[in-house]
Amino acid sequence: MSDTTDTTNTSANNADGAANANDASSANAAPSSASNAAAGAASASSAPQKFEFQAEIKQLLDIVIHSLYTEKEIFIRELASNASDALEKLRHLQLTEKAILDDNLPLEINITTDDTARTLTIQDFGIGMTRAELVENLGTIAHSGSKAFLKALGESGRKNAGLIGQFGVGFYSAFMVAKTVTVRSRSWRPGEPGHVWASDGSGSYTLSPSDGERRGTKITIQLTDDAAGFAAESRVKAILERYSAFIAFPINLNGKRINTVQALWLRNKNEIKDEDYTGFYKFQARAYDAPRLRLHFSADAPLSINALLFVPQENTERHGLARLEPAVALYCRKILIDPRPKDLLPEWLRFLKGVVDSEDLPLNISRETMQDKALLDKIGKVITKRFLKFLEEEAAARPEAYDEFYRQFGIFIKEGAALDYTHKDQLARLLRYESSLTGKGKTTPLAGYLSRMKEGQTDIYYLAGASREAIENGPYLEGFKSRNLEVLFCHEPVDDYVMNSLREYDGKKLTPADHADVKLPDAPKPPADAALPEADTKTLVEWLAATLAARGVAEVKASDRLVDSPALALNADKFMTPHMRRMMKAMNKDEDAAPLRVNLEINPASPVIKHLSAMRAAAPEKAVLVAGQILDNALIAAGLLEDAGRMVSRIYKLLETI
């Protein structure tokens, strides 16, 4: 718990002993037979003097104990924070005051547990309290010592003070787990005696002199039966490591130092070694390896932010493990506020680990949640924008390392590009794809594609498929290859959705190469005798349209994009590619899909098509079987064949004709 001095001198009241809720006339605790002023000047008799809380104060104390905090363990964080505040205040006074009691005492926090006696004790050698200050700060709920201290220091001293306790209710969180709370305190002023304050939280407290006290404050909590677990060293250690690991002063638990890891995010990054960053990452992220990437930055405007972010080596979601949860912890002046704030960063950044600390956080009175969500959103946008800039810098300076990052975490970048409209343009610049002009495993950014576009080309073309091999062996790429037009290869199911969400990049439309409306420039025409005559082609097209109409073929035409393959199938719905239909069907497994309707394009130069044209007159029944098989082959290539049973029967009939 934080200690205090007289506000008339240094204004260094207790940080979280209490805080301002009402006037002294209505909220101050009152001795049973005298005013507060009389209490402060009362006889130094060794007999405890009893003080009664007013009715309103009893009510407020009940709220603090039973309703304010969601987790009882928070009381350890509050008391450790108060002790840190008391030490911070003393460190400031050492610069301004000539005489300080026991000035050789170490600035540290000592915590002792006794599971047999069911007690927990926390002691600091900080600023301490006089008798009058004990009455004022512990006898008055909502009288904030830290708030008065900050006011006295002025705005210029605010950041140097490093005080978090400004609400003044943190001390009373101890009563969530206490039968009784005993506070022994002695002020920093030479000549001031020590005193003991004690209460069971029921509405009164006692105060008496105590000889032999050292400077500072010592709080002993006699735990209730159901809170006896807080007397276990292991449990207290875990709570301290979670909430108070980065307090500036040493925290000793039963004689062992707990907070050995420094708050690196507040230090100058030029003074920090790689091994220090790695050690911090392992501690904060509970990791066993070094991080893949790190970003350490500070910002003063528009908000005060200190952040240290890490990208792990592996994306565990790729291995089918559980969905990652937010893991960038939110701190305020080195005190943990929320280890996993869901609203701090966008969902697609859930792979990040690290710390964000802001002095501008408007916390609620229990310091467990933010009061201003809009401000939290602003902090998140600053961090997101800075991290995206960092990735762009990495991609430019270390492209191979960025490619390794992208292989692991590119799925998150794609998720953001599809869903985060605020940062869509930045995210689009980070996308990487293989293409028809890159080697296997080599990727290109969209900007790289733009630099290689043909004169007059207005579209960025892409093809979605299960793999590079599947795309290269399919019919949809042939027309683009023959014209030396680059096509991006999209291997992941989400890619089609990402491209449809982006729609364009740098003014160029993103267009699926298997879209029915794609218009390609003229390609070199084959020799006249290499293809069916136009009249025969027209007749065959009309026959195929009539023959296959019952199979859902809406249109048949001679193709200008086929080179080697006999035919290709395109979804008749111009707004849906074959790959999109496959995705929609996979997402709605329990619903009947709309009847398939396709457009069929044939290659008049293909030997198969020329043979079919001749067969149509010579063996019409067999020609119908061949036409059906050509359609099914095209549907297989498009991933649109939904019933293979009929195809198998047809193949057997064709085999009978051999």
If you had to describe this structure to a student in words, what would you say it looks like?
With 658 residues, the protein is of the alpha+beta class. It folds into 4 domains: 48-257, Histidine kinase-like ATPase, C-terminal domain (Heat Shock Protein 90, 2-Layer Sandwich); 264-401, Ribosomal Protein S5, domain 2, CATH 3.30.230.80; 433-512, Rossmann fold; 528-656, Up-down Bundle (Four Helix Bundle (Hemerythrin (Met), subunit A)), CATH 1.20.120.790. Helices cover 36% and strands 18% of the residues. The strands form 4 sheets. A 10-stranded mixed β-sheet has the order 1-2-7-6-5-8-4-3-9-10. A hairpin with a 2-residue loop joins β13 and β14 (335-338). α10 packs antiparallel against α11 (399-419) and α20 runs antiparallel to α21. The radius of gyration is 37 Å and the shape is elongated. The N and C termini lie far apart (94 Å). Residues 1-44 and 155-167 have low confidence and may be disordered.
The CATH superfamily of the largest domain is: Histidine kinase-like ATPase, C-terminal domain
Order of strands in the sheet with the most strands? 1-2-7-6-5-8-4-3-9-10
CATH topology of the largest domain: Heat Shock Protein 90
Low-confidence stretches: 1-44, 155-167
Percent helix range: 25-40%
User: What is the distance, rounded to the nearest whole angstrom, between the alpha carbons of the first and last residues?
Assistant: 94 Å
Task: Let me know the largest β-sheet.
Answer: 10 strands, mixed
Structural class: alpha+beta
Number of domains: 4
Q: Class of the largest domain in CATH?
A: Alpha Beta
